[in-house]
Design a protein that fits this description.
Elements (H helix, E strand, L loop, with lengths): L3 E3 L4 E3 L2 E3 L2 E5 L9 H11 L3 E5 L2 H4 L10 H12 L3 E5 L15 H7 L8 H14 L1 H4 L9 E5 L11 H13 L6 E5 L3 H7 L5 E6 L3 H11 L6 E6 L11 E2 L2 H13 L3 E8 L10 E4 L6 E4 L18 H11 L21 E9 L1 H8 L4 E3 L5 H4 L4 E16 L1 E7 L1 E6 L2 E7 L9 E12 L15 E8 L2 E2 L3 E7 L6 H6 L3 E2 L13 E9 L23 E5 L5 E6 L2 E7 L6 E5 L6 E9 L7 E5 L11 E2 L2
Parallel strand pairs: 4-5, 4-12, 5-6, 6-7, 7-8, 8-9, 9-10, 10-12, 11-33
Antiparallel strand pairs: 1-2, 2-3, 13-14, 15-25, 15-26, 15-32, 16-24, 17-21, 17-24, 18-22, 19-20, 19-21, 22-23, 26-31, 27-30, 27-32, 28-29, 28-31
Helix pairs in contact: 10-11
């Protein structure tokens, strides 16, 4: 039986000292058919291990409806095929710049500030989830011939709380569920974080991007014995909508990696390959004071300025990291796998010839409408990602007064009597022109991603206060959800009443918002250089790894290719191109849907081979 243990000074594999050279790659941010290539890239960089989180909310979107936890098992099998070890971080909270930190909205909506504590009802749903998930890990532990060598208990808990009873219970639950490999915690190298997040008897690790010697000194004060490990070496960073992109100098990052290894420590490069926040799963942050911090939603790309970029290509950072890691390898590093092939030919337009208004889409795919005294939140309506349409009447006759929304999260397109009246945000929640009564007010509210880190974790979405006319609340609110999940499957296409774009004209928002549809043809074999007029020429099935999709002139919304949601686009940038995994393309006719929520551009999108290497783009430099 193979044995992996935590010694007094190092990790040991069957008694032999080993150093973990790990890299983060999240199975849920990479198309399954691309796992093998991306894992081969990590091995070629010089890593011997891969780390992944597990997002609870992806697998149990509605209580009791657990789906495809086997995806984690399939990923761990791919890790084994690649000849790597695996570190699993199952949460239940993961942060990860992921929607709600991985917690389902039905959990945070029900338990609120009781999440991540000893609360008995919260612990009961965590236990039920772990008992459904963890068999995928247990049967793949190294002691059973699999790749799993370490499992994390919670995640960066010292950045959130200090409930030692909860942490010890969670560690015990992992053992009860059959986890026998060593358990660990990870926190920032600060006293209050390590005292809040560590568990007696479990290996404590530190997360940082630089200053390894200082970080490990702090860790040693709390853990005199055991291997030193940086569980998250932040080699890059993530981007927010409307902000400058964040980049880290490759030479400086390679020097910081070398410093960790010179300390004799193990490391997990976060991220080795970031991937993509498909289907609106990107999270958000709050900057500044706890109570009124500025909301910062995360972009769709999770490139992270990682050594393997979003398109699966080696960057300069990859080459420098490989050079450093080669010095610590026991044998020559594997050769790089072939570079991913982008869609052949020049960028071409894909005409969006059909359209359906938002109201018609809501009628076809939306949840039932509810009516209540006050606006229900997304959580109360069971909407995790997507939209809610609120409708409320302004009584009359009455003179014009300012109309606004209190507690808006996050963004609303407002109309009065069917005419666009403005776009409201949390910071600017009042319409520019006063409203007289009687009138009918309609608000299309979108969640731009739930906070994934800090004390604002789990904050509700939608209209969390009320609709105000002057200082008077307007009661009697009708609300109807349109979940992104509703766009999945063949039934959605049949349900939406598409019409020619030429008919999308008239008063109100006709033609400005709604669901647009177009097609393009993929034909030929991998390597074809030409792209036919109005049609792409190549095939994902024939070896094309990726394409890139841009929406010049479009404002904000979501895109699907063949029913696969690429994620959110937004003209505020910095992201301009959406990543299209090659496996979602098919030979023959392919279909594009664009759900525009504010203002459509010209009736086409642009499809091409993909974006340049993101790591070479200018932006804010992070160290």
């Amino acid at each position: 039986m193979t044995d992996f243990t935590v010694g007094d000074d190092c990790f040991r594999f069957d008694g032999r000292p080993v150093r973990l050279l790990s890299g983060a790659l999240h199975y849920f941010r990479v198309h399954e058919e691309q796992w093998d290539h991306r894992l081969a890239m990590l091995a070629a960089m010089g890593l011997n291990c891969v780390e992944t989180y597990v997002p609870w909310n992806l697998h149990e979107r509605r209580e009791g409806e657990v789906r495809d936890v086997e995806a984690l098992g399939r990923f761990l099998d791919a890790v084994e095929r690649a000849g790597l070890w695996a570190i699993v971080r199952p949460g239940p909270y993961i942060c990860a710049e992921w929607e709600n930190g991985g917690l389902p909205v039905w959990v945070t909506g029900r338990f609120g500030r009781r999440v991540r504590t000893r609360d008995a009802e919260y612990r009961a749903v965590v236990e039920r989830w772990f008992r459904a998930l963890l068999p995928q890990v247990v049967r793949r532990q190294v002691s059973r011939g699999g790749p799993v060598i370490l499992v994390q208990a919670e995640n960066e808990y010292g950045s959130y709380g200090s409930d030692a009873v909860y942490l010890e219970w969670l560690a015990g639950l992992l053992r009860q569920c059959g986890v026998t490999v060593p358990l660990f915690t990870s926190d920032g190298p600060e006293d209050h974080m390590l005292t809040g997040g560590s568990v007696p008897g479990l290996l404590a690790t530190a997360n940082f991007g630089s200053g390894a010697r200082e970080g490990f000194e702090v860790l040693r004060r709390h853990q005199p014995k055991g291997p030193s490990m940086c569980m998250e070496f932040w080699c890059g960073w993530f981007d927010h909508w409307g902000a400058e992109p964040v980049r880290r100098d490759a030479e400086e990052a390679a020097g910081a990696l070398r410093e960790i290894l010179e300390c004799g420590a193990s490391v997990n490069v976060y991220m080795a390959h970031g991937g993509t926040n498909f289907a609106g799963w990107a999270g958000a942050n709050r900057s500044g004071p706890v109570q009124d911090g500025v909301f910062q939603p995360t972009v769709t790309s999770y490139d992270y300025d990682a050594p393997v970029d979003e398109y699966g290509r080696a960057t300069e950072k990859f080459r420098l990291f490989r050079k450093v890691l080669q010095e610590y390898a026991e044998s020559p590093l594997p050769a790089l796998p072939p570079e991913p092939v982008g869609l052949a030919g020049p960028v071409r337009r894909v005409e969006l010839a059909e359209w359906a208004g938002l109201g018609d889409v809501l009628e076809a795919l939306g949840d039932p409408e509810t009516e209540s005294g006050v606006p229900p939140t997304f959580e109360e309506l069971g909407v995790d990602r997507g939209l809610v349409r609120y409708r409320v009447a302004v009584p009359g006759p009455r003179q014009p007064y300012p109309l606004g929304v209190s507690g808006l999260r996050d963004r609303a397109v407002a109309s009065v009597d069917g005419v666009r009246a403005g776009v409201l945000t949390e910071e600017s929640g009042t319409l520019p022109e006063p409203v007289a009564g009687p009138a009918e007010v309609e608000l299309w509210v979108e969640s731009l991603g739930r906070v994934n880190y800090g004390p604002r974790l789990g904050e509700p979405k939608g209209v969390t206060g009320g609709v105000l006319h002057e200082r008077q609340y307007l009661h009697g609110v009708r609300a109807r959800g349109l979940r992104l999940d509703a766009f999945e499957g063949a039934d959605a296409a049949a349900a939406v009443p598409f019409a020619p774009v030429a008919s999308a004209a008239g008063a109100g928002d006709a033609g400005r918002t709604g669901l647009f549809r177009g097609t393009f043809t993929v034909e030929g074999a991998a390597g074809d250089a030409a792209v036919a007029s109005g049609a792409s020429r190549a095939s994902g099935a024939a070896g094309v790894d990726h394409a890139g999709l841009e929406l010049p002139g479009w404002t904000r919304g979501f895109v699907w290719v063949n029913g696969f949601c690429l994620g959110r686009y937004w003209s505020v940038g910095p992201q301009r191109t959406l990543y299209v995994p090659g496996p979602v393309l098919r030979a023959g006719v392919n279909e594009v849907w664009v759900l525009e929520l504010e203002d459509a551009g010209e009736p086409w999108v642009e499809l091409g081979p993909g974006a340049p290497v993101v790591s070479d783009a200018p932006g804010v430099v992070r160290s």
